[in-house]
């Protein structure tokens, strides 16, 4: 029996959210938010620590990304009656950890706004697929793998300062990955939180339950635009929007790209002033809502997207508590958990790059350049990786044409 085609191309008239709601769809939404908080949010925390931000500031960032992702998930899922799960750019928070410490935060906000503006223009113009074709898939995969690899490699730095603790958690992760692969990181995070607070000293003070949002007026610099805004836009388009739409189509939800990009970019604009990084499709957790595990009937799976949005809004409301709790986890463990959360994404980036055929060499050059961390003219390695890769691809293609002639 085949699934209905174009399930989400248009709203299903006459359907009721209350009638379509199911425990499995709501559970899928809750799991999607839990995975986001156990994975990408840890990476965001690692980036925030690298930038030396305070607990109050980080909680505001969590509130901004959670609220924008939640509202976008609810709106798009209801509009298209499809499980449209929206989160923040996972490759973007990795990039922030490498570029952010060297930039004023107002420049970072400016880069967020420029990235949102580019995505909005691409969405409104309908040029999404055409513009992505300008950057060969091997180069995009190589750049993403390079960014993620550099960040993930730092996960093992904890062996130098806390070898026993890091070693035990690493072994626990391997065992949990065999026993319960989907929940391995979640169980590991739960164990880390329990151990952290069981061994914490008294007198740390009560958590701030609700976040404090602080707006920052943007400034713009060449280093931030080329080192953060451009790579952030590219990684978000390829690693989030393209991947997320592909996953939805795998489950016969054929959404038009234009409204998705427009809504996500507008959400990004709102969140950027408060430290929220680019909002995008949740490629990491999209399958949780789109698969039959959310509900056997594809027409009722949109409830998972609505539930995801609702739980994200709750996270925004209680972001003060979330930030307070996560900032008390030892730095070595945060680095380890964040690195483990990236294993799947690193493997995919490397696999896509190595399987890219004639462009594989260009992808490898992109990967090596990006992973090197080289900075030229105050511009980060992600930009130079793209440049090297694109030049390598077109040089090889031109050489082949000349040889054929």
What would you note in describing this structure?
By secondary structure, this protein is mainly alpha-helical. The chain has 20 helices and two strands. The protein has a two-stranded antiparallel ribbon with strand order 1-2. 69% of the residues lie in helices and 1% in strands. Helix 8 packs parallel to helix 19 (360-372).
Task: Using the CA coordinates, give the radius of gyration.
Answer: 21 Å
Structural class: mainly alpha
Uncertain parts:
1-10
The CA-CA distance between the termini, in Å, is 51 Å
List the keywords.
disordered N terminus, single chain, 1% strand, 69% helix, two-stranded antiparallel ribbon, mainly alpha, globular, 405 residues
How are the elements arranged and paired?
Blueprint: H1 17-20, H2 23-38, H3 40-51, H4 55-80, E1 86-88, H5 90-99, H6 105-125, H7 128-132, H8 137-153, H9 158-161, H10 163-179, H11 184-198, H12 222-250, H13 257-272, E2 279-281, H14 286-290, H15 302-317, H16 319-326, H17 331-341, H18 343-354, H19 360-372, H20 381-404
Antiparallel strand pairs: 1-2
Helix pairs in contact: 2-15, 3-5, 3-17, 4-13, 4-15, 4-16, 5-8, 5-12, 6-12, 6-13, 8-12, 8-18, 8-19, 8-20, 10-11, 10-17, 11-17, 12-20, 19-20
């Amino acid at each position: 029996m085949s699934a209905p085609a174009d399930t989400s191309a248009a709203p299903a008239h006459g359907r009721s959210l209350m009638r379509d709601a199911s425990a499995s769809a709501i559970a899928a939404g809750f799991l999607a938010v839990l995975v986001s908080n156990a994975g990408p949010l840890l990476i965001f925390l690692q980036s925030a620590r690298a930038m030396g931000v305070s607990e109050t500031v980080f909680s505001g960032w969590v509130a901004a990304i959670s609220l924008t992702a939640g509202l976008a998930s609810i709106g798009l899922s209801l509009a298209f009656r499809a499980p449209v799960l929206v989160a923040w750019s996972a490759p973007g928070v990795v990039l922030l950890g490498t570029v952010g410490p060297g930039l004023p935060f107002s420049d970072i906000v400016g880069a967020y706004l420029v990235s949102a503006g580019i995505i909005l223009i691409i969405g409104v113009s309908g040029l999404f697929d055409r513009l992505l074709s300008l950057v060969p898939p091997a180069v995009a995969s190589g750049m993403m793998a390079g960014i993620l690899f550099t960040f993930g490699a730092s996960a093992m730095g904890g062996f130098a300062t806390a070898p026993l603790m890091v070693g035990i958690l690493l072994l626990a992760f391997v065992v949990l990955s065999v026993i319960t692969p989907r929940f391995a990181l979640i169980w590991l995070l739960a164990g880390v939180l329990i151990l952290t607070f069981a061994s914490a000293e008294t007198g740390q003070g009560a958590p701030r339950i609700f976040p404090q949002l602080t707006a920052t007026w943007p400034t713009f610099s060449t280093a931030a635009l080329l080192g953060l805004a451009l790579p952030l836009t590219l990684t978000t388009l390829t690693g989030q929007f393209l991947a997320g739409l592909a996953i939805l189509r795998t489950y016969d939800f054929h959404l038009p790209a234009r409204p998705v990009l427009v809504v996500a970019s507008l959400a990004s604009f709102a969140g950027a002033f408060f430290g929220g990084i680019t909002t995008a499709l949740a490629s990491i957790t999209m399958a949780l809502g789109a698969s039959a595990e959310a509900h056997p009937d594809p027409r009722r799976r949109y409830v998972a997207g609505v539930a995801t949005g609702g739980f994200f809004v709750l996270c925004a409301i209680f972001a003060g508590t979330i930030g307070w709790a996560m900032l008390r986890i030892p730095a070595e463990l945060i680095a380890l958990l964040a690195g483990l959360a990236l294993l799947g994404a690193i493997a995919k980036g490397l696999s896509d790059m190595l399987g890219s055929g004639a462009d594989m060499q260009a992808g490898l050059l992109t990967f090596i350049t990006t992973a090197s961390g080289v900075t030229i003219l105050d511009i980060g390695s992600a930009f130079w990786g793209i440049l090297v890769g694109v030049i390598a691809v077109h040089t090889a293609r031109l050489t082949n044409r000349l040889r054929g002639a």
